[in-house]
Amino acid sequence: MAETDWGAVDAYIGEKLLSRDAALDGALEANRAAGLPSIDVSPLQGKFLHVLARIAGARRILEIGTLGGYSTLWLARALPEGGRVVTLEFLADHAEVARKNLAAAGVAEKVDLRVGAALDLLPVLQAEGEQFDFVFIDADKENNAAYLQWALKLARVGATVIVDNVVRKGAIVDPADRSPTVEGTRRFFDAASAEKRWTATALQTVGAKGWDGFAIGVVEAAR
Ligand code: SAM
Q: What GO biological process terms are annotated to this protein in UniProt (predicted)?
Protein backbone atom coordinates (compact mmCIF):
# COMPACT_ATOMS: atom_id res chain seq x y z
CA MET A 1 0.00 0.00 0.00
CA ALA A 2 1.32 3.44 -0.88
CA GLU A 3 2.70 5.72 1.83
CA THR A 4 0.15 8.35 0.78
CA ASP A 5 -2.64 6.02 1.98
CA TRP A 6 -1.44 6.04 5.58
CA GLY A 7 -3.11 9.39 6.22
CA ALA A 8 -6.32 8.20 4.55
CA VAL A 9 -6.42 5.14 6.81
CA ASP A 10 -5.82 7.34 9.87
CA ALA A 11 -8.69 9.56 8.68
CA TYR A 12 -10.95 6.49 8.29
CA ILE A 13 -10.11 5.16 11.77
CA GLY A 14 -10.47 8.65 13.21
CA GLU A 15 -13.97 8.91 11.74
CA LYS A 16 -14.87 5.67 13.51
CA LEU A 17 -13.10 6.03 16.85
CA LEU A 18 -12.58 9.74 17.55
CA SER A 19 -15.34 12.21 18.27
CA ARG A 20 -15.25 15.90 17.48
CA ASP A 21 -13.75 17.47 20.56
CA ALA A 22 -13.63 21.25 20.88
CA ALA A 23 -10.78 21.28 23.41
CA LEU A 24 -8.49 18.88 21.52
CA ASP A 25 -9.26 20.32 18.10
CA GLY A 26 -8.97 23.84 19.54
CA ALA A 27 -5.53 23.05 21.00
CA LEU A 28 -4.22 21.97 17.61
CA GLU A 29 -5.73 25.08 16.03
CA ALA A 30 -4.19 27.33 18.71
CA ASN A 31 -0.82 25.64 18.19
CA ARG A 32 -1.02 26.32 14.46
CA ALA A 33 -2.10 29.93 15.05
CA ALA A 34 0.83 30.47 17.43
CA GLY A 35 3.26 29.10 14.84
CA LEU A 36 4.26 26.01 16.84
CA PRO A 37 5.75 23.20 14.76
CA SER A 38 3.24 20.49 13.89
CA ILE A 39 5.14 17.81 15.81
CA ASP A 40 2.46 16.88 18.34
CA VAL A 41 1.28 13.27 18.40
CA SER A 42 -1.52 12.53 15.94
CA PRO A 43 -5.09 12.36 17.33
CA LEU A 44 -5.08 8.55 17.17
CA GLN A 45 -1.69 8.44 18.89
CA GLY A 46 -2.97 10.86 21.55
CA LYS A 47 -5.88 8.54 22.21
CA PHE A 48 -3.46 5.60 22.25
CA LEU A 49 -1.53 7.31 25.08
CA HIS A 50 -4.81 8.05 26.86
CA VAL A 51 -5.91 4.41 26.63
CA LEU A 52 -2.51 3.16 27.80
CA ALA A 53 -2.55 5.49 30.82
CA ARG A 54 -6.09 4.29 31.66
CA ILE A 55 -5.07 0.63 31.34
CA ALA A 56 -2.08 1.35 33.61
CA GLY A 57 -4.39 3.04 36.13
CA ALA A 58 -1.92 5.92 36.19
CA ARG A 59 -2.42 8.58 38.88
CA ARG A 60 0.95 10.33 38.48
CA ILE A 61 2.15 10.91 34.92
CA LEU A 62 5.43 12.49 33.78
CA GLU A 63 5.70 13.92 30.29
CA ILE A 64 9.00 15.19 28.88
CA GLY A 65 8.22 17.55 25.97
CA THR A 66 4.96 19.53 26.19
CA LEU A 67 4.88 21.63 23.00
CA GLY A 68 1.34 23.09 23.00
CA GLY A 69 -0.01 20.53 25.46
CA TYR A 70 -1.89 18.33 22.98
CA SER A 71 -0.57 15.01 24.32
CA THR A 72 -0.68 16.52 27.83
CA LEU A 73 -4.42 17.04 27.41
CA TRP A 74 -4.99 13.45 26.30
CA LEU A 75 -2.97 12.25 29.31
CA ALA A 76 -4.67 14.61 31.78
CA ARG A 77 -8.03 13.26 30.69
CA ALA A 78 -6.89 9.75 31.54
CA LEU A 79 -6.34 10.64 35.19
CA PRO A 80 -8.67 9.70 38.00
CA GLU A 81 -9.83 12.30 40.51
CA GLY A 82 -6.79 13.76 42.28
CA GLY A 83 -4.35 12.56 39.59
CA ARG A 84 -1.64 14.77 38.13
CA VAL A 85 0.50 15.19 35.00
CA VAL A 86 3.88 16.83 35.42
CA THR A 87 5.01 18.05 32.00
CA LEU A 88 8.38 19.59 31.14
CA GLU A 89 8.95 22.11 28.34
CA PHE A 90 12.14 23.95 27.42
CA LEU A 91 10.65 26.83 25.43
CA ALA A 92 8.66 29.46 27.31
CA ASP A 93 6.56 30.35 24.27
CA HIS A 94 5.53 26.71 23.77
CA ALA A 95 4.67 26.49 27.47
CA GLU A 96 2.58 29.65 27.25
CA VAL A 97 0.47 28.19 24.43
CA ALA A 98 0.14 24.93 26.36
CA ARG A 99 -1.03 26.73 29.52
CA LYS A 100 -3.78 28.45 27.55
CA ASN A 101 -4.83 25.21 25.83
CA LEU A 102 -4.94 23.28 29.11
CA ALA A 103 -6.91 26.05 30.83
CA ALA A 104 -9.38 26.22 27.92
CA ALA A 105 -9.82 22.45 28.18
CA GLY A 106 -10.56 22.70 31.92
CA VAL A 107 -7.63 20.50 33.02
CA ALA A 108 -5.18 23.16 34.25
CA GLU A 109 -5.53 22.03 37.87
CA LYS A 110 -4.45 18.50 36.89
CA VAL A 111 -1.28 19.67 35.15
CA ASP A 112 1.99 20.87 36.67
CA LEU A 113 3.80 22.49 33.72
CA ARG A 114 7.43 23.31 34.38
CA VAL A 115 9.63 25.35 32.06
CA GLY A 116 13.31 24.62 31.54
CA ALA A 117 15.68 22.00 30.22
CA ALA A 118 14.35 18.60 31.26
CA LEU A 119 17.79 17.49 32.44
CA ASP A 120 17.71 20.40 34.93
CA LEU A 121 14.11 19.81 36.00
CA LEU A 122 14.26 16.04 36.48
CA PRO A 123 16.65 16.20 39.48
CA VAL A 124 14.24 18.69 41.06
CA LEU A 125 11.42 16.17 40.74
CA GLN A 126 13.66 13.55 42.34
CA ALA A 127 14.48 15.93 45.22
CA GLU A 128 10.75 16.49 45.68
CA GLY A 129 10.28 12.73 46.07
CA GLU A 130 8.08 12.37 42.99
CA GLN A 131 7.16 8.87 41.87
CA PHE A 132 5.35 8.25 38.61
CA ASP A 133 3.11 5.49 37.27
CA PHE A 134 3.48 6.45 33.62
CA VAL A 135 6.20 8.36 31.75
CA PHE A 136 5.93 9.70 28.19
CA ILE A 137 9.24 10.83 26.64
CA ASP A 138 8.81 13.14 23.64
CA ALA A 139 11.36 15.96 23.70
CA ASP A 140 14.88 16.33 22.22
CA LYS A 141 15.76 12.88 20.92
CA GLU A 142 19.49 13.49 21.51
CA ASN A 143 18.85 13.06 25.25
CA ASN A 144 16.56 10.01 25.11
CA ALA A 145 19.13 7.68 26.70
CA ALA A 146 19.45 10.09 29.64
CA TYR A 147 15.66 10.52 29.84
CA LEU A 148 15.26 6.75 30.05
CA GLN A 149 17.64 6.67 33.02
CA TRP A 150 15.69 9.49 34.70
CA ALA A 151 12.39 7.76 34.00
CA LEU A 152 13.71 4.64 35.73
CA LYS A 153 14.77 6.73 38.74
CA LEU A 154 11.44 8.49 38.99
CA ALA A 155 9.00 5.68 38.15
CA ARG A 156 7.72 3.05 40.52
CA VAL A 157 8.26 -0.64 39.83
CA GLY A 158 5.52 -1.71 37.42
CA ALA A 159 5.25 1.74 35.82
CA THR A 160 4.94 2.23 32.06
CA VAL A 161 7.60 4.19 30.17
CA ILE A 162 6.86 5.06 26.54
CA VAL A 163 9.19 6.85 24.13
CA ASP A 164 8.03 8.48 20.89
CA ASN A 165 9.76 8.75 17.50
CA VAL A 166 12.18 5.84 17.84
CA VAL A 167 12.09 4.73 14.18
CA ARG A 168 12.53 8.05 12.34
CA LYS A 169 11.41 6.83 8.90
CA GLY A 170 13.77 3.88 9.25
CA ALA A 171 16.84 6.12 9.53
CA ILE A 172 18.04 4.25 12.63
CA VAL A 173 19.27 1.44 10.34
CA ASP A 174 20.80 3.75 7.71
CA PRO A 175 24.52 3.88 8.52
CA ALA A 176 24.88 7.04 6.40
CA ASP A 177 22.50 8.93 8.69
CA ARG A 178 24.60 10.46 11.46
CA SER A 179 22.13 13.24 12.32
CA PRO A 180 21.94 14.09 16.05
CA THR A 181 18.36 12.84 16.43
CA VAL A 182 19.14 9.50 14.78
CA GLU A 183 22.39 9.09 16.73
CA GLY A 184 20.45 9.96 19.89
CA THR A 185 17.88 7.31 19.06
CA ARG A 186 20.63 4.71 18.55
CA ARG A 187 22.15 5.64 21.93
CA PHE A 188 18.67 5.22 23.41
CA PHE A 189 18.36 1.69 21.96
CA ASP A 190 21.87 0.83 23.19
CA ALA A 191 20.91 2.01 26.69
CA ALA A 192 17.59 0.14 26.52
CA SER A 193 19.25 -3.09 25.41
CA ALA A 194 21.65 -2.96 28.37
CA GLU A 195 18.95 -1.97 30.86
CA LYS A 196 17.76 -4.72 33.20
CA ARG A 197 15.21 -2.45 34.91
CA TRP A 198 13.10 -1.93 31.79
CA THR A 199 11.38 -4.80 29.97
CA ALA A 200 10.62 -3.16 26.67
CA THR A 201 9.68 -3.56 23.05
CA ALA A 202 9.26 -1.14 20.17
CA LEU A 203 6.62 -0.99 17.45
CA GLN A 204 6.85 0.73 14.12
CA THR A 205 3.91 2.98 13.29
CA VAL A 206 2.58 4.56 10.11
CA GLY A 207 -0.20 7.09 9.79
CA ALA A 208 -0.90 10.79 9.47
CA LYS A 209 2.56 11.52 10.90
CA GLY A 210 4.36 9.20 8.50
CA TRP A 211 6.62 6.28 9.43
CA ASP A 212 7.94 6.23 12.98
CA GLY A 213 7.46 4.20 16.15
CA PHE A 214 7.07 3.95 19.91
CA ALA A 215 9.23 2.09 22.41
CA ILE A 216 7.27 0.92 25.44
CA GLY A 217 8.22 -1.00 28.53
CA VAL A 218 7.51 -1.78 32.14
CA VAL A 219 9.81 -0.77 34.99
CA GLU A 220 11.36 -3.69 36.89
CA ALA A 221 12.92 -3.80 40.34
CA ALA A 222 16.69 -3.30 40.34
CA ARG A 223 18.48 -6.69 40.23
N1 SAM B 1 4.40 15.78 23.40
C2 SAM B 1 3.97 16.87 22.53
C3 SAM B 1 2.67 16.49 21.86
O4 SAM B 1 2.59 15.36 21.33
O5 SAM B 1 1.74 17.32 21.84
C6 SAM B 1 5.00 17.16 21.48
C7 SAM B 1 6.35 17.48 22.03
S8 SAM B 1 7.45 18.05 20.78
C9 SAM B 1 7.75 16.62 19.83
C10 SAM B 1 8.93 18.24 21.68
C11 SAM B 1 8.94 19.39 22.66
O12 SAM B 1 10.06 19.20 23.52
C13 SAM B 1 9.10 20.77 22.02
O14 SAM B 1 8.10 21.65 22.46
C15 SAM B 1 10.47 21.23 22.49
O16 SAM B 1 10.56 22.62 22.72
C17 SAM B 1 10.62 20.45 23.79
N18 SAM B 1 12.02 20.27 24.19
C19 SAM B 1 13.11 20.18 23.38
N20 SAM B 1 14.21 20.03 24.11
C21 SAM B 1 13.83 20.02 25.40
C22 SAM B 1 14.52 19.91 26.63
N23 SAM B 1 15.85 19.78 26.67
N24 SAM B 1 13.81 19.93 27.78
C25 SAM B 1 12.44 20.05 27.75
N26 SAM B 1 11.74 20.18 26.61
C27 SAM B 1 12.42 20.16 25.45
A: methylation
